[in-house]
Design brief:
Strand content: 15-25%
Strand order of the largest sheet: 1-2-3-4-5
Helix content: 40-55%
Shape: elongated
Number of strands: 13
Low-confidence stretches: none
Structural class: alpha+beta
Number of helices: 18
Radius of gyration: 35 Å
Length: 489
C-alpha cells in the first residue's frame, strides 16, 4: 500500500511540479558558480575548468539530496570573504566548510544568542565589498553606456523580482548585445583586386602585363566571423558595387565561423547577378568543420548552392582560385592562348635570350636535359646542390615542409622561368621542396660548370647574373604590391 501511495505522488500529471523547479534551480546555480569562478580568476590570476566545476557541483548536490540536504553553488559572498581573509588554495574552502560545520555542531547554542542586527551589519559589509565600483566607469563614454544599462537592469531585476529573473534578464541582454556587435562588425576582413594580389605561379613578363591591365575584372574578398541573417545584408552591400563590373568574385571562407540558410540564399543572388555577364562566383578555403561541426561544402551541397548548372567553383586554397582566375583572363588573349606543348630552346629562355651564338653553344654544352612526371620530386629541403633549373615546358610547385606533416605552397614556376636560384647563388642547401605539377622538361645548369665556362666568354657572367637579379627584383616588386594591398585592405 505504501508503494502505491508513493507511486501516486510521482504521477505524470504532477511530475512537471518537480522538473521545472529542478531545471530552474540547476540553471541558476550553474550560472552563479561560473560567475563566481570568473571573479576568482580575475582576483587570483588563475583559470578554472568550467566542465569540471559543474560536474563537481552536480555530484555534490546529488549526494546532498540523498542525505537530505539542500542544493548549493559557489557563492560570491563566501568566496570573497575567503579570499579577503587570506585564503589562497582550494584547501581554504575545505577548511572553511569544516569550520562552519564545527561551529554549527559545537557552538549552535551560543550562535543563537548573536543579535540579528549584528548579522545584518556583517551582511551589509559583505554586500559592500561585493560591489564592483569599476562598473561606474562605463558611464564615462557613450560607447559603454549600454553595458552599464545591462548591469543596472540585472541589479534591479535581482532586487525587485528574484535572482532567477535577474539571470534571465542578463542572458537575454547579453544575447542582444552580441547580435548588435556582430551586425555592426564588418564580415569583410580584406578586399583586393586581381591586379593587386597575384597567385604564386610565376608568369612571363607579357602575361604579367595582361594581368595588371585586366586584373580589375576579378575581386577577392576575405571573409571572417558569422554569415547569418544579421550580416548578410551588410555583406551584399559591400559586394554589390563590384557585381556589375567584376567577372570573377572570389570569396575566401577560411576564417568564417558559421553560415546559415539566409546567407546561402544571398550567395545564390550574388551568383545569379555575376552569371548574367558570364562571370563566376568562386569559393576558396571552405572549412572542413566550422566550430559547430558542420562541413560547409556538404552544407552548400545540401541546400543546392553548389550545382553543375550554377556558375560557381570551389578551390581548396585561395592561391588555386587566383591561379585559375588568372588563366581565364590570360586565355582571352590570342597571343597567350597557345598550348603549352612545345619545349623552349636555350635561346628562347629569357635568361639567355640575348647571348651570342658562341656563348649559347658553350652553355648548351654544360647543361643537362631532364624530364619529370607529374608529382615527381626534383629536390628536397636540406639537400646539397648548386644547380639552376630552367623550365622548358610544364610547371613546378615549390613547397615548404612544416611541422606535423603540413606544407605551405610558396610559388609555382612555369614555362620560361627558372628556380633553384638561391642555392645557385649562395651554394647552400635547398630551402624547400620542388615537385613537378605537370609533365615537365628542364635544362639543368650547375654553378661549377657555369664558373668554368663563363670566364671563356667575356660578358656572359655579367649578363646572366644581371638578368637573374632583374627577375628577382620583379618578383620582389610583385610581393610589395601584394603586401601593400593586404595592409591597405
Amino acid at each position: 500500500a505504501s508503494f502505491g501511495a508513493v507511486g501516486s505522488l510521482f504521477s505524470i500529471d504532477s511530475i512537471h511540479l518537480i522538473l521545472m523547479p529542478a531545471a530552474t534551480l540547476a540553471v541558476l546555480l550553474a550560472i552563479d558558480t561560473l560567475k563566481t569562478c570568473v571573479i576568482v580568476d580575475a582576483l587570483t590570476r588563475s583559470r578554472h575548468n568550467s566542465n569540471q566545476e559543474l560536474m563537481g557541483q552536480g555530484i555534490g548536490n546529488l549526494s546532498s539530496a540523498l542525505l537530505g540536504g539542500l542544493p548549493g553553488a559557489g557563492t560570491m559572498g563566501a568566496t570573497l570573504m575567503n579570499l579577503s581573509s587570506g585564503g589562497k588554495t582550494k584547501l581554504s574552502s575545505i577548511f572553511s566548510g569544516i569550520s562552519a560545520l564545527a561551529a554549527f555542531l559545537l557552538l549552535a547554542r551560543f550562535v543563537a544568542w548573536v543579535p540579528l542586527s549584528s548579522l545584518a551589519g556583517i551582511l551589509i559589509i559583505v554586500a559592500f565589498r561585493m560591489i564592483d565600483w569599476k562598473s561606474l566607469r562605463l558611464l564615462r563614454q557613450k560607447s559603454t553606456a549600454v553595458d552599464f544599462a545591462v548591469v543596472l537592469a540585472v541589479v534591479v531585476s535581482a532586487v525587485g523580482i528574484n535572482l532567477i529573473a535577474a539571470s534571465g534578464v542578463g542572458v537575454a541582454l547579453a544575447i542582444l548585445l552580441f547580435l548588435r556587435e556582430q551586425i555592426r562588425t564588418s564580415v569583410v576582413r580584406r578586399k583586393a583586386f586581381g591586379n593587386q594580389v597575384f597567385s604564386k605561379k610565376q608568369r612571363l613578363p607579357e602575361e604579367i602585363a595582361v594581368l595588371e591591365s585586366k586584373g580589375n575584372q576579378s575581386v577577392i574578398f576575405e571573409l571572417h566571423g558569422s554569415l547569418f541573417f544579421g550580416t548578410t545584408d551588410q555583406l551584399f552591400t559591400e559586394l554589390e558595387p563590384h557585381l556589375a563590373q567584376a567577372k570573377y568574385v572570389i570569396l575566401d571562407l577560411r576564417k568564417v565561423q558559421s553560415v546559415d540558410f539566409t546567407a546561402t540564399h544571398m550567395l545564390e543572388q550574388i551568383e545569379a547577378q555575376i552569371a548574367e555577364h558570364q562571370g563566376c562566383l568562386i569559393f576558396s578555403n571552405l572549412p572542413a568543420a566550422v566550430p559547430s561541426g558542420r562541413n560547409l561544402q556538404s552544407y552548400f551541397d545540401e541546400v543546392g548552392l553548389v550545382q553543375p548548372k550554377r556558375s560557381i567553383k570551389l578551390f581548396a586554397s585561395l592561391d588555386d582560385a587566383l591561379e585559375w582566375t588568372e588563366d581565364q583572363l590570360l586565355a582571352t588573349e590570342s597571343a597567350l592562348s597557345k598550348e603549352d606543348r612545345v619545349a623552349l630552346n636555350l635561346a628562347e629562355l629569357s635568361l639567355f635570350s640575348k647571348l651570342n651564338a658562341e656563348a649559347l653553344a658553350a652553355l648548351r654544352a654544360c647543361t643537362v636535359e631532364r624530364t619529370y612526371q607529374p608529382g615527381q620530386k626534383i629536390f628536397s629541403q636540406g639537400e646539397q646542390g648548386d644547380e639552376l633549373f630552367l623550365v622548358r615546358r610544364g610547371s613546378i610547385k615549390i613547397i615548404l615542409p612544416l611541422e606535423g606533416g603540413k606544407t605551405h605552397h610558396l610559388v609555382t614556376i612555369s614555362k620560361g622561368d627558372f628556380f633553384g636560384d638561391m642555392a645557385f647563388l649562395d651554394r647552400h642547401v635547398r630551402s624547400a621542396d620542388a615537385i613537378a605539377s605537370s609533365s615537365t622538361e628542364l635544362y639543368v645548369l650547375s654553378r661549377a660548370a657555369f664558373d668554368q665556362t663563363a670566364p671563356q666568354h667575356p660578358g656572359m657572367g655579367r649578363m646572366v647574373f644581371s638578368r637573374m637579379a632583374r627577375v628577382l627584383a620583379v618578383r620582389l616588386r610583385q610581393t610589395d604590391i601584394e603586401l601593400r594591398a593586404l595592409e591597405e585592405a
